[in-house]
Specification:
By secondary structure, this protein is α+β, with helices and mostly antiparallel strands. The chain has helices at 16-24, 54-64; strands at residues 3-8, 29-36, 43-51, 68-69, 72-73, 75-78. The strands form two sheets. It has a four-stranded antiparallel beta sheet with strand order 2-3-1-6. The longest helix has 11 residues, at 54-64.
Length: 107
């Protein structure tokens, strides 16, 4: 089962292929992608890598977190599932149903 990793702190010059090569030195890479801005096409400085097994993912985190890639120190961690980050609970910032004039918070 593939495990998705978040890779932060990437140089704007780091390519998807370079990211794949770096992680392939640790284990089998299912996929790799540097996230780019949809308007400019420029790297946003982070990406995702899917390692083939949980063991290889753990090895990648251990070996590559805090290492240097293209002149930048990268951070590598298991990716959070979509919607797990940020303040998404009802009444939180950006959510529906909380605050506003004449309304009391739900906590």
């Amino acid at each position: 089962m593939a495990v998705k990793l978040f890779v932060g702190g990437l140089s704007f010059s780091t390519t998807t292929e370079r990211l794949r090569e770096t992680f392939a030195a640790v284990g089998a890479v299912e996929s790799a992608a540097v996230v780019t801005d949809r308007d400019t096409g420029r790297s946003r400085g982070f990406g995702f890598v899917e390692m083939a097994t949980p063991e290889e993912a753990e090895q990648a985190v251990t070996r590559l977190n805090g290492s240097s890639l293209d002149g930048r120190t990268i951070q590598v961690e298991k990716a959070k599932s979509p919607g797990a980050g940020g303040d998404r609970r009802p009444g939180g910032r950006g959510g529906f149903g909380g605050g506003g004039p004449g309304r009391s918070p739900r906590w």
